[in-house]
């Protein structure tokens, strides 16, 4: 599962990690892989929200058939009565029209399957279950799948401290990837907030897998799970992690609370204490020459509510023009109408919606 506008870099990532027979679909990409590659993808993928392993696919025109088909699955392959589970569901263009109702019918089928055979059932745990089960019904075709990542993969585990309206980790990873930053120039974020862009830049450069802080993965519940292969895969990936050179990644924010949160989050990752952080307004920065700037300005969410956003964005543009010579500035606008206020020529505009916001990633090349 992946956002539509991240699908192209998601496909490239899957190929790089060893997947084959890729087939893009709405908000996802079907692929084939062996068990070793599945572990690698579930541990390293940075742009996907979930990696799903199929259990069964079938025509589904009623809730009764959904229930009876789910009851035909041997759920002891994935769960015991002592485990916990949760279900997430989506429904589109089907006779079953409510996703929560569809999830409830699947939950009932699983619970009843265990009650009939064991006299007790696994409990539902909606935050940190042992197993996430996905249900998708599209055009009266149902797909029941196991989440091999063990939960939404944007939750890397480093964001223990937060501020208002933080950027989602998968989107921040996409900003870093699309910028083409490879560590050959210093990277700076003058509106770092709780440090999500900085952490994702760190993880890319230092080759830290997205699941580095995750304690458990859904593929460990699959019947073909091989503990020895997983240990070998994990050890090989972790052996590639490298240290961050001093001064390569830096950030600042006017909010001391935000900088404190960023410091705490960065410190949870290898070399995170090598990221330079400062509490200061971007207006107090003397210069940011010959580097890569990647940022997501707050757009009123961390500013005063009476802030003139057009004027604020113009002042950011003035800062780029006057103090950032030789720098490539990648700025993410959650509200694309503000781009015109910057007063600078854009080299690249990339559509990147963020939730309900029709966002754009924009490149300004400062000479």
Descriptive report:
With 367 residues, the protein is of the alpha/beta class. The protein has nine helices and 14 strands. Strands 10-9-8-11-12-14-13 form a seven-stranded mixed β-sheet, with helices on one face. A five-stranded mixed β-sheet has the order 3-7-6-4-5. A two-stranded antiparallel ribbon has the order 1-2. α5 crosses α6. The two termini are 39 Å apart.
Structural class: alpha/beta
Distance, first to last CA: 39 Å
Order of helices and strands: HEEHEHEHEEEHEHHEHEEHEEE
| Total number of strands | 14
Shape: elongated
Strand order of the largest sheet: 10-9-8-11-12-14-13
Quick summary:
This protein has helices at residues 7-16, 35-44, 63-71, 99-118, 169-179, 196-205, 227-238, 256-266, 309-323; strands at residues 20-25, 28-32, 52-59, 84-92, 123-124, 131-138, 141-147, 187-189, 249-253, 276-279, 292-295, 328-333, 348-351, 360-365.
Ordered list of secondary-structure elements with their pairings:
Layout: H1 7-16, E1 20-25, E2 28-32, H2 35-44, E3 52-59, H3 63-71, E4 84-92, H4 99-118, E5 123-124, E6 131-138, E7 141-147, H5 169-179, E8 187-189, H6 196-205, H7 227-238, E9 249-253, H8 256-266, E10 276-279, E11 292-295, H9 309-323, E12 328-333, E13 348-351, E14 360-365
Parallel strand pairs: 4-5, 4-6, 8-9, 8-11, 9-10, 11-12
Antiparallel strand pairs: 1-2, 3-7, 6-7, 12-14, 13-14
Which properties best describe this structure?
alpha/beta, 367 residues
């Amino acid at each position: 599962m992946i956002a539509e506008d991240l699908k192209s870099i998601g496909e490239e990532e899957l190929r790089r990690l060893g997947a084959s027979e890729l087939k893009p679909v709405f908000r996802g990409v079907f692929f084939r892989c062996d068990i070793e590659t599945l572990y690698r993808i579930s541990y390293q993928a940075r742009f996907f929200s979930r990696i799903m392993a199929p259990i069964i696919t079938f025509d589904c025109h009623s809730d009764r058939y959904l229930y009876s088909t789910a009851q035909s699955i041997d759920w002891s392959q994935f769960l015991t009565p002592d485990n916990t589970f949760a279900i997430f569901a989506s429904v589109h263009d089907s006779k079953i029209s409510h996703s929560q109702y569809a999830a409830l019918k699947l939950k009932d089928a699983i619970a009843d399957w265990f009650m009939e055979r064991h006299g007790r059932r696994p409990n539902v745990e909606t935050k940190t279950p042992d197993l996430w089960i996905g249900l998708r019904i599209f055009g009266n075709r149902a797909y029941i799948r196991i989440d091999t990542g063990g939960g939404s993969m944007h939750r890397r585990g480093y964001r223990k401290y937060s501020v208002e309206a933080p950027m989602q980790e998968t989107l921040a990873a996409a900003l870093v990837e699309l910028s083409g930053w490879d560590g050959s120039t210093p990277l700076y974020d003058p509106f770092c907030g709780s440090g999500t862009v900085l952490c994702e830049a760190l993880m890319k450069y230092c080759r830290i897998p997205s699941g580095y802080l995750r304690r458990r993965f859904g593929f460990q519940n699959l019947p073909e799970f091989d503990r020895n292969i997983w240990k070998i895969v994990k050890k090989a990936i972790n052996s590639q992690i490298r240290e961050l050179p001093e001064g390569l990644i830096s950030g600042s924010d006017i909010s001391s609370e935000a900088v404190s949160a960023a410091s705490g989050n960065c410190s949870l990752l290898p070399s995170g204490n090598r990221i330079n952080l400062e509490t200061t307004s971007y207006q107090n920065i003397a210069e940011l020459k010959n580097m890569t700037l990647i940022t997501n300005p707050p757009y009123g969410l961390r500013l005063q509510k009476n802030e003139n956003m057009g004027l604020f964005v113009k002042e950011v543009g003035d800062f780029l023009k006057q103090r950032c010579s030789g720098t490539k500035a990648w700025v993410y606008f959650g509200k694309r109408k503000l781009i015109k206020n910057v007063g600078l020529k854009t080299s690249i505009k990339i559509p990147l919606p963020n939730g309900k916001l029709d966002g754009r990633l924009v490149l300004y090349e400062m000479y």
